[in-house]
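Moderator note: this is an archived Q&A kept for reference. The question asked for a predicted structure of one protein chain; the sequence and the answer are reproduced below.
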Amino acid sequence: MWFGIFRSSPGTLTDGGQSQPRLDAKGALVVSSEDGSGNPQGTLPAGTDRSGSAATSSGQIVAANSARKGLEIQNIGANNIGINEFGGTAEIGTAGTYTIAPGASMKIRTNRAVTAIAATGTTAFTATEW
């Protein structure tokens, strides 16, 4: 038996857009859908590194970006950092600022500017914008 499953856009499966079926390690049929670039449907685009350091005064870590889908930030430093996803002044312990403990991370779905502040000292973070 032969199954031909491949479709990057709606249409018929009789126009040459088929591919040989794939089986997983247990022999089950793998069914997947690909976007126009050959990536699995739902794959996020390549991200942009926005890593840096937060100081004890609020500072912008990413500018507003209407094309941004999201931002993930991880605190890789030894001190808490505060993140304000609305572009306002980040201040730990106040409304609008999320506190991220060392090692913790958060995802933000905003296209606004994002600001950060360190509780003490200069604190490193890693961030990816997509």
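Archived answer notes: The chain has two domains: 1-43, 48-129.
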